[in-house]
Amino acid sequence: MQVKLSVRHGQLSEEHQQQIREKAEKLLHFFNRLTMIEVTVDLQDPIRKQVEFLANSEHKHDFVARESHAELLGAMELAYDKIVHQIHRYKEKIQDHRRDRHLGDVPPAASEGTDE
Question: CB of 6 within 8 A of CB of 36?
Answer without folding.
Answer: no
